[in-house]
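The aim of this short unit is practical: by the end, you should be able to scan a pair of folded records and say something sensible about each. We start with the first protein, listed as its amino acid sequence and then its structure tokens.
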Amino acid sequence: MRRFFGNRDFYRRLFAVMIPILIQNVITNFVSLLDNIMVGKLGTEQMSGVAIVNQLVFVFALCIFGGISGAGIFTTQFYGSHDDEGIRHTIRVKIYIALLATALFMAAFIFYGDRLISFFLHEGEEGLDLAATLDFGKQYMSIILIQMLPFALMQVYSGTLRETGETVVPMVAGIVAICVNLGLNYVLIFGKLGLPAMGVVGAAIATGVARFVELGIVVIWTHTHKARCTFIKGLYSSMRVPRALLGRIAARGTPLLLNEVLWASGMTMLNQCYSERGLEVVSAISISSTVSNLFFCSFFAMGSTVSIMVGQLLGAGEFEKAVDEDRKLVTFSVLLCTATGMVMAALAPLIPQIYNTTDTVKAIACDLLIVSACMMPMDAFTNASYFTLRSGGKTFITFLFDSGFVWCVCVPVAFVLSRFTGIPILPMFIIVRCLDLIKCVIGFILIKKRKWVHNLTLEAK
């Protein structure tokens, strides 16, 4: 039992890191759920158009996350070895990556947005209006572009704060931004306080304003608390990064960047395969994924916790303690997500009834939610395995483990089922999700071999 469960001090440290991240994620995804419901009140076509664009923006968000994560591994370990100059270098790398990725994705959305949205539009059983769905998606995308740069820079600052042990400030900034987003959504979507009803355009404007608010809070706090954030001193006095460190970050970070981009595009491709069963499935997937993400916050937060706690121990050279605590963190994550999945399954029949959509969409969404709930313990283990491997710099292995698996196993199976069989959406979804059982076995073997136990700060010097 001692191998899998920690003492009071262990759980105190775990909760100190996890709870702020969990709260921020829960609030963010709860408001995303409310946003989804508000847009859903406008109609199925509006909800589908926004859902498709958000799926594309999701690829951008994970590209930013993956791009800065390579540098973030070094940030965590530099913090563990009390090296402020090293942290400054990693922040500069993150800024360069954020600016470049934002420019590339904005160009892609501006010039190819129509084609990307149309890729998901297919006739279903209920004759929903595909042209209207495309138009709503184009309206939403034209405005949502404004939030991309503040989102990217916010990830640079908030990610660095979390990696250096400050998890409360990003949480507070997220809560404030969420309140702004929610309030503006209500006012702008439905036309309250004397303003005109702007529909999906109002939803996009609200998101953009909230992103700027969140970025402002995090940046101002960081630069006005230099005693706490000692690494921020002299950050912009130079934007130079030592070539040796840049090479190390590129070597470790490129697989992470490719992994996030390919994983997100893989998820997008899976949803495109599901959309072959009609626009009703697009709406049902939108409901299911938005609700699921609220419950998935448990293992998302635990993944970040594993990365931070294990990474700091590796940076401090406490290898055996890192292995021991990682085992306990994985155990806690699986148990937490088992309980969360049970709650999610119990609520699955009720939540879709809130939406202003067809009975067919509601029924499909309920079924998908139940399947996702049953898979949560498995998701928790694979997620914890991924972050364990990543904390030790095994980014090429995580690349194969994560996006490699999606594109080599999940996408081909979904593609064949959607194009060459008449199998309904539910059994197709179950088959694809159950493929992740293979990842559980692979993850267990990789963690057991302990090849992820490395101190990257020594290599970087």
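Turning to the second protein, read its sequence before its tokens, just as you did above.
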Amino acid sequence: MFDDNSEQKKALRSIAKGRKRTNLLRFWEQNLIAWFVQRMPAWVTSNGLTAIGFIGNVIVAVGFVLAAYVHPFWLLINIIGFMISWFGDSLDGRLAYFRNIPRKWFGFCLDVIVDWLGIVLIGLGFCIYSAGFWKVLGFVFIVLYGGEMIVSQLRYKVSDEYSIDSGLLGPTEVRIILSAIFSIEVFVHGLLNYLGLAACIILFLSFVVETRKLLLLADARDIRERAEKVEQHSSQS
């Protein structure tokens, strides 16, 4: 599927700029993204791809609503929604880098805002689908995912290195896991609530671990900058 040539390698180099990936599927994912950006029509823009990614999240939210009021079978369209979300969200910034027209800070801000709105919609969709106490999980999911996003942006500020992954898990792996969960829910109704609870527990533990790493990183930078100031002051004396 992938061309082993200079163009493919050039595309891989361009889409890797400014972003460190550690997720399990990074090799296959980056090759697929490189393949797509080389063949994207000229009229497709990065902002357009961001909009497509958001539409994917809207489809997921609508899938929850239809599953709640029509039939659980509608949860399966969430898989399509996640595929569309991955396509737009993964290619928007990478296409700009490939075309050498990145809008680093504008694109970064737009991407974070749109991602957050998409997560809110998905969480609200879950609240509508679930009953009773389980509705709280949708709210908890939004809060914890938002916390992960904040930690990610703070890590970028402290380290000047942007990463969207948490260890071996990135947005792509999360989308695949959620798609599998939704598929199971169609046939085992109610299981989604317990799996959602498990997901919230994992998110909470990840938030605690990543927050600790962030604070240690920030403390190390403070110590380094203080030492540099002392050294600079000594050299000027």
